[in-house]
Amino acid sequence: MEVFDPIRGLGEIPASHSGRVRFLPTADRTVFSTIQFGVLFVMAWWSGHARRGFAELMRVLAALDPGGRLEVVVVDTDGCPDLYECPEFAGQLHGWGEVAWVRGGRVVNTSGVGYRPECFEPFTRELLTSGNPG
User: Fold this and answer.
1) Distance between CA 70 and CA 14 in Å, rounded?
2) Which of 58, 101, 104, 112 could form a disulfide with 133 if both were Cys (CB 3.0 to 4.6 A apart)?
3) In degrees rounded to 5, what are phi and psi of residue 130?
4) Domain containing 22: what range?
């Protein structure tokens, strides 16, 4: 039996970010402090919206960040119950592929409640223009 590889299971990752994606099967709110300049994506493997959201986020990153400046941290929704309670995501996590944009270990934007890929481009552009804190 083949072992499931979560990174490969995410789908296509652009070459610009292939070395910049980190998957965490479990996480708590301290995960934000490990991200200096990037995005946190909450993956619900069972959700079509989350899968589409990840693909759209990768498309946006390939277009806006071809140099791969932004780190991508993917957490499994089933392994991060603490994120459901933290102020940045309180009431927002529902398995739709929610995203947080992080600069200097602090959340600067979230995708909010529901499937909202229309915010991926403006929030990514905003983060990129804010400058790398590190």
Assistant:
1) 12
2) 104
3) -75, -15
4) 17-130
With vertex at residue 18, the alpha carbon angle to CA 14 and CA 23, rounded to the nearest 5 degrees, is: 115
Does residue 24 lie in a domain region? yes
For the chain, what is the domain count? 1
CA pair distance 25, 9, nearest whole angstrom:
13
